Amino acid sequence: MHRRLVISAVVTALCGGTLIGTTAPASAAAVDCRKVKCVALTFDDGPVADTTRLLTLLKDHGVKATFYLVGKNVQRYPATARNASRAGHQIGNHSWDHADLTRLTSAQIRSQLSRTDTAIKQATGIRPTTMRAPYGAHNTAVRQASDRPLVHWSVDTLDWKYRDPARIVRTVRDQTRPGDIVLLHDIHRTTVNAVPDIIKTLKAKGFHFVTVDQLFAPAKLPAEKVTYHNRAAYRP
Ligand code: NI
Questions:
Q1: For an engineered disulfide with 190, which of 21, 90, 132, 163 has Cβ 3.0 to 4.6 Å away?
Q2: Which bin fits 66, alpha (ψ -120 to 50), beta or left (φ > 0)?
């Protein structure tokens, strides 16, 4: 297992160097989003079977992202969740079955989140430190029950509505500013198909791809508050 991790790191470094040359950060952890243009790609509602293809694409391009996973899908594809986490992507809680949490009691909301925490912890060894409310729907009860930061988005690709890779790429290219959080769904093949061109387009504009935690580092997100972007990040 250790050897596999080392090999994977070397392959990522080689691919990154070959594909993106001098613009490649030595490692995602070294990126300071106060000094360079950063964007956080987020993928919701998985894992699904096609998430494995997405993980390969991200690895080939040396890109780290954040996954907001649905608990029942983690239960079905625990190895995929584990692979995402081990590849250096951040994992967040997106409820057990994508319920509109604002329609549930506080006890039901806590159950949605704790069951998902348990599934993710079992699969990856890590308890998710952020959550994203399904449909972006939240109220006081949801925020209090979350007991952690809610991370939403500032660029909405509407990829669930327009199953057109070219349109998704255009939306991301035209709307993304430094510090933005981009909403994507790897449950749609058209979205995964768009990922290589999303990455190429944003790299050409000088963006570095970071996880949500890295986007805000060294600051920490406030618990029970909803965050949509980091406008304190570097602005050219
Ligand atoms: Ni969702």
A1: 163
A2: beta
185 is catalytic: yes
Q: Could you tell me the distance, in angstroms and rounded to a whole number, from the CA of residue 3 to the centre of ligand 1?
A: 35
- Tens-place pLDDT, residues 179-200: 999 999 999 999 999 999 999 9
Nearest to 206 by CA among 159, 171, 157, 173: 173
Active-site pick, 185, 188, 208, 229: 185
If you measure from the C-alpha of residue 101 to the centroid of ligand 1, how many angstroms do you get, rounded to a whole number?
12
- The letter for the amino acid at 101 is L
User: For 7-35, what is each residue's pLDDT tens digit?
Assistant: 444 444 433 333 333 344 445 457 999 99
CA–centroid distance, 14 to ligand 1, in Å, is 34
* Model confidence, pTM: 0.87
Map out the domains of the chain with their CATH numbers: 26-233 (3.20.20.370)
Q: How far is the CA of 23 from the centre of ligand 1 (A)?
A: 32
